[in-house]
Amino acid sequence: MKKRINLGSGTDYKKDWINVDLEGKRDLTHDLNEIPYPIDPDSVDYIKIHHVLEYLDSPVRVLEELHRICKKGAIVDVEVPYGVTTTYNPWHKHDFIPKWFETLIEGTSESMKDWRERVKFRIKSMKVKRGDHAFWRKYEIRVLLEVVK
Length: 149
Known about the structure:
Elements: E1 4-7, E2 18-21, E3 28-29, E4 44-50, H1 59-69, E5 70-81, H2 98-106, H3 113-118, E6 120-130, E7 139-148
Parallel strand pairs: 1-2, 1-4, 2-3, 4-5
Antiparallel strand pairs: 5-7, 6-7
């Protein structure tokens, strides 16, 4: 059976998944800012992390940790609000546009070269779509990252 993890599950409890959060119905209680996660390395096939990265202290460190716990070929399914949301949502710590992911994962910046050599992802797909949430999530970015090891 494939190991699937729902990070920041909140009210979106998924049967036959490992649901991780601090509150609500969950299988594992863990603060996603606390790294390392209590999950074995190279053990996960699929991670869903929807509308979570914008609340965390360091999305880059979180992606490093997701790479550590995922098997080669695993999918990390990320969804974040599109654009500047930190100015009117006081709980958001980070803003995202597609270029953020492109620069981090595929960029040529020398300053990120070491990171990209250790933490390898391939952008399988990325799209901006209309959200169905509150006004600050009018548009969302959905990115499927494939883990390369």
